[in-house]
């Protein structure tokens, strides 16, 4: 069965069981402080499990792009070495939000595997949670009983807390799980060792394919468990592993998900897969990593130096490194795999197709730049090796190479071993640990449990319509971190505060109680769909009604910038073309920033056209047309621009100004006239194929014009109130150039004269042309003169001195021939004569300089110089 059909059959099956089939959410998570990448199928549905939102259908199924390279799930180091862990993989999942539970989840999983896919029952094992006394959680007897109905009891294995108890995080929903494992070894091998004993033992052909999680508890901050009011099902099946089973192969990399990419790598590198272990590892690494990187870029996450972007950069660099070391590829080639990947997966993930060109460009650029780093690193490493005494290279030095220059440590170790040297790994690890401790200490944070003031409170956001409201605090908690100290997070029953999201900053403002006490709201953010207000302290009268007031000025300015961002997006597509896609934005009160795909620098005319386009729409006084409850599909059909970062939801909000229409949750001006004016401040490249525009609107433009205007008058003042300051400055520049030219000629003439005079003053002593003299020149003038005279003689000894700004300078020149014959050294000369001018210096044997603070010593230094040639 082809992988495409396998995926489709899964979705069809659960559709027949009344599930809504939804598209994969973006893999890169925006606006969730607790997660960088979706690492399991349930992540996009967290808010449903936490009860913060209600799904339209309480049964959902999908295939979700997952990435396991950081945080709780990190499989990166396994990838390439084993045959069944990937960085990016698809997780097929079915969910019940308070609807069906263990019985159906188990029965359906079994039906799908054995009846729809036709998996042989004899290769399947299942696990059940054995219970844990410490935690006081009983064995999952319920699941055991359901399994017993369909599978022989000796194929049901007991699993411990590590394997069979799932938790969302340190706090929150959790519960026992049942895993389904396959044994795809040959009959011969099976006869030797029983499959049962290999489950959960990291055997490459006895692997877990599906995990059924039964969420029935909630873990509190103090570690205790309570029963969840509504119980949920969360299942995840590894798509690539399922393909391995159904395509009857022994490795995920032998399925049609990977073979086309591997064939392409073979062609490009002229290596064969399956002949040599190291080459095979490298090919697996690269075929895996190119998928992770391509999907991330398609999701809008470019490689960068921080956060999620840095994780992506590291994945790509790992691939480059394996290609460099084991496939001998010293030039970019991974980008060339994007073509086959997008052909193969583009149907299920259209973003790979539409963004192909960008993905290729970005990967190529990253590859090239990392290959340069590797080159430099090799040079630095050679330097380190040369300085190394004994056979062990210092861990500290290796760490510096790794930390400062991004040179991979395993490559360092490999190169050293090829040179017969050892790496002080302990020393390296100690440095690494120190660095980790430093960054952990900086990010350490503790979060208290919520204190609930109003039970079962719903939260309403009214900030599109109001900037003030009477509110009640429904819950609060304290969060302590090194960075911010103690902070309080407050949740209200209703709020006019906009939470940071869609690039727009969170609102600031204050709460005021009836006694007149005020608590400032410093920021507003969203976590799992709950709007959280940040304050430095708690109000005294927590249970009272407060007046919540948003800082209106900041909000207005932010809104002007947000609407301008939409108009800018439209303008760029109009002026540059439809290939322009938004790649990120930041909407602040003071400015806006917009990142987009485009391949060359914008010309002055294009920038002016873009500005004019936006300003024409501001002048056009276009009213805001807002629609808060549009089904997503309908909005897209109506031509709304869907941005990355959006995931499946029941309804979306559309924002229209004239012909600009976008899906957007942010706040906007009521009419484009409120923006007053739009001005681009800068345009630059932030990555290959990605440009950034920074712009300002409204008050900031007024400030900008005010400042430039003031500067203009100051300049005019300096120009004696010239009528035409532009012309006056141009004249000044011309005049200045003319004067520079004159000075140059004069200096040249002077030098010529000096040279002639000096030649006459030289004396010949012991076959050496000698001159010691004070000159009226600066250091570089003396140097030029030394070298010019030097080119005319091969037996020259010069000592020049000068006084500059109260300091003394010495320059000594000795012909190379003399250096060799008479064992003279200019460096030594200036060092020794330097003491007369109370200074020091050095240089090369044929030319050296010294500086000192005692010009009175010049005379003596000059006199003493003759000693060297006598
Ligand atoms: P394993 O122990 O094999 O790493 P897991 O316990 O981490 O698996 P879950 O978190 O339960 O796996 O994820 C559900 C399913 O997703 C697994 O049964 C497996 O089929 C698949 N899966 C998990 N991690 C990976 C990965 N890195 N690459 C490919 N598939 C994976
Ligand atoms: Mg795992």
From TrEMBL:
Protein name as annotated: Alanine--tRNA ligase
Domain of life: Bacteria
Catalytic activity: tRNA(Ala) + L-alanine + ATP = L-alanyl-tRNA(Ala) + AMP + diphosphate
Protein family (similarity comment): Belongs to the class-II aminoacyl-tRNA synthetase family.
EC nos: 6.1.1.7
Classification via SMART domains: tRNA_SAD (SM00863)
The species this protein was found in: Pontimicrobium aquaticum
GO biological process annotation, one example: alanyl-tRNA aminoacylation
Phylogenetic lineage: Bacteria, Pseudomonadati, Bacteroidota, Flavobacteriia, Flavobacteriales
A Pfam family assignment: DHHA1
NCBIfam families from the UniProt entry: alaS
Cellular component terms per the entry's GO annotation: cytoplasm
Keyword vocabulary terms for this entry: Aminoacyl-tRNA synthetase, ATP-binding, Cytoplasm, Ligase, Metal-binding, Nucleotide-binding, Protein biosynthesis, RNA-binding, tRNA-binding, Zinc
Entry's localization field: Cytoplasm
Biological role: Catalyzes the attachment of alanine to tRNA(Ala) in a two-step reaction: alanine is first activated by ATP to form Ala-AMP and then transferred to the acceptor end of tRNA(Ala). Also edits incorrectly charged Ser-tRNA(Ala) and Gly-tRNA(Ala) via its editing domain.
InterPro entries xref list: aa-tRNA-synth_II/BPL/LPL, Ala-tRNA-lgiase_IIc, Ala-tRNA-ligase_IIc_anticod-bd, Ala-tRNA-synth_IIc_core, Ala-tRNA-synth_IIc_N, Ala-tRNA_ligase, Ala_tRNA_ligase_euk/bac, DHHA1_dom
């Amino acid at each position: 069965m082809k992988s495409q059909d396998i995926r489709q059959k899964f979705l069809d099956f659960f559709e027949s069981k009344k599930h809504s089939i939804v598209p994969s959410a973006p893999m890169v998570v925006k606006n969730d402080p607790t997660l960088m990448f979706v690492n399991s199928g349930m992540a996009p549905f967290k808010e449903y499990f936490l009860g913060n939102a209600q799904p339209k259908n309480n049964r959902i199924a999908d295939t979700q792009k997952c990435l396991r390279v950081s945080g709780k799930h990190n499989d990166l180091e396994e990838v390439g070495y084993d045959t069944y862990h990937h960085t990016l993989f698809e997780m097929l999942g079915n969910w019940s939000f308070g609807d069906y539970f263990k019985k159906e989840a188990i029965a359906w999983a079994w039906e799908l595997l054995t009846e729809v896919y036709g998996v042989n029952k004899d290769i399947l094992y299942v696990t059940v949670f054995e219970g844990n006394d410490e935690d006081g959680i009983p064995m999952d007897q319920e699941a055991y009983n359901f399994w017993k109905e369909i599978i022989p009891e000796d194929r049901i294995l007991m699993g411990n807390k590590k394997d069979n108890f799932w938790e969302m995080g340190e706090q929150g929903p959790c519960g026992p799980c049942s895993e389904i494992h396959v044994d795809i070894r040959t009959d011969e091998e099976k006869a030797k060792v029983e499959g049962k004993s290999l489950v959960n033992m990291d055997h490459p052909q006895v692997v877990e394919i599906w995990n059924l999680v039964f969420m029935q508890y909630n873990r509190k901050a103090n570690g205790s468990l309570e029963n969840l009011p509504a119980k949920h099902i969360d299942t995840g099946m590894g798509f690539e592993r399922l393909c391995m089973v159904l395509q009857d192969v022994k490795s995920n990399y032998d399925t049609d998900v990977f073979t086309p990419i591997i064939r392409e790598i073979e062609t490009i590198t002229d290596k064969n897969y399956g002949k040599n272990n190291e080459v095979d590892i490298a090919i697996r690494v690269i075929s895996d990593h190119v998928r992770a990187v391509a999907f991330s870029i398609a999701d809008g996450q470019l490689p960068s130096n921080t956060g999620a972007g840095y994780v992506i950069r590291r994945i790509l660099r790992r691939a480059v490194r394996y290609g460099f070391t084991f496939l001998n590829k010293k030039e970019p080639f991974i980008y060339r795999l994007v073509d086959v990947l997008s052909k193969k997966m583009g149907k299920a993930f259209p973003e790979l197709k539409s963004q192909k060109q960008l993905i290729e460009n970005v990967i190529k650029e990253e590859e090239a730049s990392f290959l340069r780093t590797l080159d430099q690193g090799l040079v630095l490493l050679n330097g380190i090796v040369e300085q190394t005494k004994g056979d062990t290279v210092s861990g500290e030095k290796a760490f510096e190479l790794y930390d400062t220059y991004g040179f991979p440590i395993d490559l360092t170790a490999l190169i050293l071993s090829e040179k017969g040297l050892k790496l002080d790994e302990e020393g390296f690890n100690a440095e690494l640990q120190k660095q980790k401790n430093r960054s952990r200490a900086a990010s350490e944070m503790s979060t208290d449990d919520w204190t609930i003031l109003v039970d079962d409170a719903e939260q309403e956001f009214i900030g599109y319509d109001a900037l003030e409201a009477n509110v009640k605090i429904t819950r609060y908690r304290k969060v302590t971190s090194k960075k911010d100290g103690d902070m309080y997070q407050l949740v209200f029953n209703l709020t006019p505060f906009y939470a940071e999201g869609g690039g727009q900053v969170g609102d600031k403002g204050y709460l005021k109680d009836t006694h007149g006490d005020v608590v400032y709201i410093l920021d507003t953010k969203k976590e799992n769909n709950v709007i959280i207000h940040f304050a430095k302290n708690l109000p005294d009268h927590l249970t009272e009604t407060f007046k919540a007031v948003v800082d209106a000025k900041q909000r207005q300015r932010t809104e002007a910038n947000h609407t301008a961002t939409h108009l800018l997006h439209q303008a760029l597509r109009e002026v540059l073309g439809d290939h322009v896609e938004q790649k990120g934005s930041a909407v602040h009160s003071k400015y806006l920033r917009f990142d987009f795909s485009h391949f060359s620098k914008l010309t002055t005319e294009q920038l002016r056209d873009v500005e004019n386009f936006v300003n024409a729409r501001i002048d056009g006084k276009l009213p805001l047309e807002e629609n808060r409850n549009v089904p997503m599909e309908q909005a897209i059909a109506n031509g709304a621009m869907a941005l990355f970062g959006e995931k499946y939801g029941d309804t979306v909000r559309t924002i229209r100004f004239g012909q600009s229409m976008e899906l957007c949750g942010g706040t906007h001006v009521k009419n484009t006239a409120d923006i007053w004016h739009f001005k681009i401040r800068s345009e630059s490249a932030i990555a290959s194929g990605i440009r950034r525009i920074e712009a300002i609107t409204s008050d900031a433009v007024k400030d900008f014009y005010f400042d430039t205007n003031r500067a203009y008058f100051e300049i005019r003042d300096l120009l004696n109130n010239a009528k035409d300051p532009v012309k006056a400055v141009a004249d000044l520049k011309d005049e200045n150039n003319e004067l520079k030219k004159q000075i140059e000629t004069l200096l040249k003439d002077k030098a010529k004269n000096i040279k002639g005079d000096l030649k006459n003053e030289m004396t010949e002593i012991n076959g050496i042309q000698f001159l010691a003299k004070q000159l009226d020149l600066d250091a570089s003038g003396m140097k030029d003169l030394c070298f010019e005279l030097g080119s005319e003689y091969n037996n020259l000894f010069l000592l020049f001195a000068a006084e500059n700004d109260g300091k003394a300078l010495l320059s000594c020149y000795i012909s190379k021939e003399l250096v060799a014959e008479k064992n003279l050294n200019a460096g030594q000369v200036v060092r020794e004569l330097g003491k007369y001018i109370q200074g020091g210096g050095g240089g090369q044997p044929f030319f050296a300089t010294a500086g000192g603070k005692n010009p009175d010593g010049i005379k003596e230094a000059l006199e003493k110089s003759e000693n060297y040639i006598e």
